[in-house]
Specification:
This protein has 16 helices and ten strands. The chain has about 425 residues and is of the alpha+beta class. Helix 3 runs antiparallel to helix 4 and helix 9 crosses helix 13. About 0% of the residues have low confidence.
Length: about 425
Amino acid sequence: MASVSFFVRGKVVDKESTIWAKFRDRDIDIRVPVPYLNCKPKDWKDGKCKIPSKKNHKDDTETINTRLAQLEANIISSYAEDKPELDLKEWLKSIIEPKSQKEEKVKYSDDVVPFIDIYVSFKKDSITEATIKKAGVVKQVLQRYIDDKNTIKKTFRSLKFKDLDNTFRIDFEKYCQNEIYKVSNTYKNLKFLKMVCSVAESFDIEVHKHVKNWKFEVEKSIRNDPKSIYLTFEELDKIEKTEMPHDYLDNARDWLLISCYTGQRVSDYMRFTSSIIVQDSEGRKYLDFTQIKTGAKMQIPLLKKVQEVLDKRDGEFPRKISDVKFNLYIKEVCKIAEIDEIIYNGKMMTIERKGKPKITRKVFGDYPKYELVTSHIGRKSFASNFYEKIATAYLLNVTGHTTEKQLLAYINKTDVEKAKSTAKMFDSLGY
């Protein structure tokens, strides 16, 4: 449950110190100063000023404690209403100092698409590459929506923040449906747009009041989507033992095995070198690195299957290859290894449209499993194969997920597989 508390950092007991706000909710822990409120450490106790009548200035109409109580209530209510997921620190700063950016006296564009670039320029030092990439995707989709509207109505030139009412949302969702976008992706794009709207409001840009009430039941929208695939231990053994006809396929096969036994993203494991291997006092080996996407410092056990790949290559990891080539090669690897079970799922395809440009979309159908293999299958395979075999807390330590909910999105076992796993666990307990 979300909570707000206040503290002072000052060490000099008789010197005024800035009060800080601490916001917590599950795995969130953010601390931001409240620059307009301060208190001497000697007058501070249990998150409040010990002098109930104390004010910052003699002209203040409210005491420090009253303003802190109001600020706490405002943060909690805003969090429940905004449900921010990105730039939480900036969101908290905007609640504590809603007028701080007005002092710049700069008038920013109220056009949605150009403002996304402004958002990125302001946040580039505090957001991840994935968020910047997401901003680019949303910008492109909105621009295509605007272009489509312009072909129908020539006077439709741009999309203003004040135009983002419920009518826009319905029309945008209809456009995305016609363009064969998944409902879950459309919801995620709208959710990102809602977050950008809150930033725009902090710059005094008029945003339609409907935006604040937008709700996105993303989980419900993907409930009936086919689960993404993974490679079982049996299939991995088959891939490992199959002789590859070319060196480049052997190289790609080894990276595929490494990905499935480390549970990392391609952006991380393709950077692995022998220099990241460390050893503890008992001789156990670990991979010590920092995840690109999250910035999380990782130290994960070096499993036997990974060590076997290294032994095969004189202690070194395979040759680096591009993500594009890796995705092509591992499909060929799995085809040669006869990973060809027919599965209903989606794969990216170029779609021809009469009178319209080609589009690339995920098309669902019955495909042999090797056609569905991508660089991310290693992470999904690791999570699915080791789930229920080791404690979830330990599994989170390896994958780097911050919550069990995030991890469960990668667990792609069927109901039958889950039932068998559960039965084996009861067997091991003697029941």
